[in-house]
Amino acid sequence: MEPMSAGLMIAIVVAAFAVFVVVKTAVVVPQQNAYVVERLGRFHSVLDAGFHVLLPFADVIRYRHTLKEQAVDIPEQICITKDNVQVAVDGILYLKVLDAQRASYGIADYYYAISQLAQTALRSEIGKIDLDRTFEERSHINGMVVTELDKASGPWGVKVLRYEIKNITPPQDVLAAMEKQMRAEREKRAVVLASEGERDAAINTAEGKKQQVIKESEASRQQQINEAEGQAQAILAIAEATAGGLRKVGDAISAPGGVEAVQLRVAEQYVEQFGHLAKVNNTVILPATLSDVGSMIAAAMNVLKTARAEEPVRNAAVAPSRAGPAMPPRPPLPRP
């Protein structure tokens, strides 16, 4: 094998050097990333997503930032509330780099600076409220911490999006007191609900009895009305039937043989009624003419004749006059 010529060796070295320079100067920036380039030790530019070629030996990528939203864990710290109770509070912070140049040169380490500022702002906000309100006003505390951080992080090119409190842990004795208070409040609520249920049940029962009494009275009233109407209709029907019966009896008496039939009927009723009188009472007062049934029938027939004789007179008195009412006298005529 012949030794490699000097020219070929130089060409290989030059080619390797060219490849090395291309590899070191060609840069591909991923999406949602930003690279800060310094030229000869001074800020030159910010490379966005895409392919870029740097100036060999002069340009250097000094900082690499991600533009995605980042979550920073804020460690637990002890805070003192307005009523002097120590509580342990931790949280999580969400931020995003908006300006890569200011994030590179505005502060040495914005993660550390923002976490420290978040802890101090949280202690300040917790110290303004009582222990009971710390659990109720988490959203308010988170908003105030974000507001304070946003004021300071603006020059750093970082935007604090939100802060969320993860845990608020009071001391054990305070937790025990809170559990007792919670248990007492629940028992109180249970007693109040039970009393309200009994009250509602009593009201419903009374209302039901009231409705029952009203319905019963209405039903009784309607029953009495119906019974009265039924009795009135029955009385009217009986009166009409009696009148019809009497009318037929009168017709039968006026017919030939009617008087004899009446005498026979009166005699039967006379004997029958005396028979009933002897069965009901021990003491019986008998008329002196008991043996003379014919005189009793004659007396009854005289009553019948008298009634028949008075009936035309009564009808004549009741019937209106056919001549009509008398005409009033005519007034005299005026003289001329």
TrEMBL record:
<protein>
    <submittedName>
        <fullName>SPFH domain, Band 7 family protein</fullName>
    </submittedName>
</protein>
<feature type="region of interest" description="Disordered">
    <location>
        <begin position="313"/>
        <end position="336"/>
    </location>
</feature>
<dbReference type="Pfam" id="PF01145">
    <property type="entry name" value="Band_7"/>
</dbReference>
<dbReference type="InterPro" id="IPR001972">
    <property type="entry name" value="Stomatin_HflK_fam"/>
</dbReference>
<feature type="compositionally biased region" description="Pro residues">
    <location>
        <begin position="326"/>
        <end position="336"/>
    </location>
</feature>
<dbReference type="InterPro" id="IPR032435">
    <property type="entry name" value="STML2-like_C"/>
</dbReference>
<comment type="similarity">
    <text>Belongs to the band 7/mec-2 family.</text>
</comment>
<dbReference type="InterPro" id="IPR001107">
    <property type="entry name" value="Band_7"/>
</dbReference>
<dbReference type="InterPro" id="IPR050710">
    <property type="entry name" value="Band7/mec-2_domain"/>
</dbReference>
<dbReference type="Pfam" id="PF16200">
    <property type="entry name" value="Band_7_C"/>
</dbReference>
<dbReference type="GO" id="GO:0098552">
    <property type="term" value="C:side of membrane"/>
</dbReference>
<feature type="domain" description="Band 7">
    <location>
        <begin position="24"/>
        <end position="182"/>
    </location>
</feature>
<dbReference type="InterPro" id="IPR036013">
    <property type="entry name" value="Band_7/SPFH_dom_sf"/>
</dbReference>
<dbReference type="GO" id="GO:0005886">
    <property type="term" value="C:plasma membrane"/>
</dbReference>
